[in-house]
Amino acid sequence: MCCPVRAQQPRGGDMDVQKNCMPDRQKLTGVSRRDFIKFCGVMAVGMGLPVGMGPRIAAAATAPQRPPVIWIHGQECTGCSESLLRTSHPTLERLILDLISLDYHETLEAGAGRQAEAAFDQAVKKSAGRFILVVEGSAPVKDGGIYCKIAGKPFVDIVTETAAKAAAIIAIGSCASWGGVQSSAPNPTGATGIPEVLKGKTVVTIPGCPPNPYNFLSTVLYFLTFKKLPDLDDLGRPKFAYGRLIHENCMRRPHFDAGRFAEQFGDEGHRKGYCLYKLGCKGPMTYANCPVILFNDVGSGAWPVGTGHPCFGCTEEGVGFTIPQFTEADVEIVTPAAAHAPITVEKGRGMSKGSAALLGGLAGAAIGAGVMVTKQLGKAESADEKEE
Amino acid sequence: MRAARPLGGRVVSRTFLAALVIVLVALYFLAKRFMFGLGAVTNLNDGYPWGLWIAYDVVTGTAIGCGGYSMALLVYVFNKGRYHPLVRPAVMTSMFGYTLAGVAVFFDIGRYWHIYNLFLPWYANPDSVLLEVALCIALYSLVLWIEFAPTFLAHWHASRWRTRLDRAMFVFIALGILLPTMHQSSLGTMMIAAGQKLSPLWQTAWLPLLFLMTAVIMGYAAVVFESTLLANRYGLPGENRILGKLSGGVVWLVAGYLVVRFADVILRGQLGLAFKGDLAANMFWIENALFLLPLVMLAGKSGRGRPRVLFLAAASLLLAGGVYRFDCYLIGFNPGNGWHYFPAVPEIVITLGLISVELMAYLWFVKRLPVYREA
Prior knowledge:
The structure holds two protein chains of two kinds. By secondary structure, chain A is of the alpha/beta class. Helices cover 41% and strands 9% of the residues of chain A. Chain A has helices at 4-7, 14-29, 33-46, 54-61, 79-85, 92-99, 113-126, 155-163, 173-178, 194-197, 213-226, 239-242, 246-249, 253-258, 268-271, 290-293, 353-387, and strands at residues 68-73, 101-105, 132-136, 139-140, 149-150, 153-154, 168-172, 191-192, 203-206. In chain A, strand 5 and strand 6 (153-154) form a beta hairpin. In chain B, 70% of the residues lie in helices and 1% in strands. Chain B is globular. Classes of the chains: A alpha/beta, B mainly alpha.
């Protein structure tokens, strides 16, 4: 159990290389081998994979040829990158130094201007056909895409050109996924999500404002391990992360079912942690795993609804930034998806056909006998009357 | 005064044989019960440890068997000597009712081989209602046999013993009034102990009084029911005049009962439950309608003179008291946690077997012993 990677070594020669590199690379960040394997196991579980996949993920993540990642920014606030910077397992330095080869990232690089442009060109050229393209932010398409230019080039063109050479494309954040806040009406720049720009290509979307960085990391590691993308829904979202409504796994769901609602911020119900539905919570129409994996590794309650704020539907096109904050959500599934686990279990045996028939027969016989006796008594009565 | 005489005739009649068949089937199930335990023949469970055998055989059966108590109360306490001819048959029915209730308890107790501990004072819990009921019923069964003993002694022509017994009889008559007063009310007390498990339509601190009143009513009803039935079946002269008079008293008793019953439900603010339309509410109305119906039937003097009216009214009262007892012990009782109960076929058959034994014994007794007075 302590060294699952070593256990796999007899399988192939490349493991020897890995055995040699791993200690060196781990020295960089001071993370023990044990912690690293644990991390891979946790990531596997987060994706709904068996824990036993941990070693395979570890093998993929420690392969000497780390997958190159090219990260470009369009119309956005860098919130996605910021949230990624705050992950603690792995930390950012582990991510970009050990797990992936982050060849280009505008926020994180030291270079600027032409130097940065040169780095970008070189990175794309060097690993053409192999790199993972991560796009953060939407692309404005109105007026030839002039509202977002980098090095004098419309962002929409950069995306199209780079995507043609990428092995996989990930749109991170709501802006890249479907346009985000800037795509709300009247959308003056024609902000468009990357799947729309790259029609016909498979684009994994990790919506959220910001998205949970672990959903991004899990997707990357899945791709590295299995050389394919995880199961996606029709909006390109990994099903392991966006398969269920927030409402389904919400910690406040029992209050919803029991009809206990916070009516306004700061009222008694709000302070008692009641359901935020009447404050406009969009949990019932938003697909995301926020209530399950939470944010920032700070413990329970670390997500919007947990802190007392209604969900505003950031991961859901047509909900976040579109439906007003305090408008009540449409409840798609009014009753819980599965039946409630009963509080009481039926015990004991009820009426059987036999007992019902027996008692029915007895009652019938009794009534019949009663009628007969009454009749006879009636006859006797009239006979008495005649005698008199 | 006409003396009581055996009715005579063949004991082994068709009715007797039919009853015998039921008894044999019941014996088969009883054998199963004693070999494999209660679970093999009953639907009793941890939620409903008391089922049909307690609700009918003990609680309802002894109430039907309150004829002896009711008549003794009337004849000896209220000194209405003219009802004396009704006492002996009433005592006999009571004797059967109580004895068989005791037998039924023996079937119902899971570890019946411990039953003798009940009679060891050093094991007694003097605060237990159940102990009081058990001892009272056991003792009263004995008292009833002693009260009925003169009939046997007359049959055996043991007049010396009879004189001796007659001298001490007042003690047993007194006991025969004291004991049922105690345990018939305690049958109600037992359900007070059930607390909130019993629906508020029935749960009240007045349960002992209501049980006692219904027991006395059922006792009179049993006497009337039996007398009219027997008079019709065997062409006896009928005690219509006495029964009519008796029914006049019963009317007041039933009216009093209904006043207490409804006042209690209304004053506790629980009458709303009677309009919920569920099983409990329906049973509440059925039960009270069965009490009210005879009240209307017997209210007029002309009705009280007609055996048919007397018979129907008595049947209705017996049914009413029975439904009341079933409501308190089973229908209005919900132990929660999803428990439910309905008697199993073998369970019902065993109860039927007990009733059949009672019927057979009754037939033998009235045909061979001087119970009823003849024309």
